[in-house]
Amino acid sequence: MSAIQNNTVSNSASNSASNSASNGINTKSIGGSATAALNASASSAAQIQDQFMTLLVAQMKYQDPTDPMKSAEMTSQMAQISTVEGVNKLNSSMNSLLSQMQSSQAFQASSLVGKSVLVPGNTLNLTKGQATFGVQLDAPASSLKVNILNGAGQSVDVMTLGPQPAGTVPLAWDGKDINGNQLPDGPYRFQLAANVAGKNINPTGLATANVTGILNPTANTSAQIMLDNNTTTNISNVAQIR
């Protein structure tokens, strides 16, 4: 028996079930071809459902009485449209959740404007003889050493600190060199060395920066904050708000 085409269903609408049987029409093939056709032509789950149900009703109406459609086949075809509709609803829910998360991130980022934060970095700015920075430790350290460098990369001071807890540790420098002389205000850098569980490591440094603005999240990025050192960073990188 030859497979029925879509126009066969339309042209056979006036024929009786017995004529369909005697002409040898194989209406069972509608299910597979209909699914492929619907996936290619329908732009939404609602359109797919309408077209699917139309073809399914036609299939049942003009089926061969001597070989009727099995209930399992009908259940399988109904499950196909339910799956398509379910996936569509899931995508809609996920998009809505993503939009809510992005809005929440943007709100959180906007609340940081004008505030000072600690973010990953190794720079510090000496202002009026004071500079703040920090370190991120994954585990408690038995000792911590901070080497302060000037703009030329020369070491001007060394801070030897005792045990430090795990987590975000805020630090401060008084702007004096190794001999106790006050250094001029301006940009400096720092290097870190810590001893954790008997091993020497270089932990993550945290620089102090002021938040000057935000970049709203997009479909592929999360909220970004703009800093006064002309850089941007993800809001999730903020280790501490000062």
TrEMBL record:
Residue span(s) of domain FlgD/Vpr Ig-like: 121-195
* One of the Pfam families matching this protein, by short name: FLgD_tudor
Protein name (Swiss-Prot/TrEMBL): Basal-body rod modification protein FlgD
Please cite one Gene Ontology biological process associated with this protein: bacterial-type flagellum organization
Per the record, the domain of life is: Bacteria
The family assignment reads: Belongs to the FlgD family.
Name the keywords, alphabetized.
Bacterial flagellum biogenesis
Annotated spans, Disordered? 1-22
State where composition is biased (Low complexity).
10-22
Functional summary from the UniProt entry: Required for flagellar hook formation. May act as a scaffolding protein.
Q: Which residues form the FlgD Tudor-like domain?
A: 104-238
Q: Which InterPro entries match?
A: FlgD, FlgD/Vpr_Ig-like, FLgD_Tudor
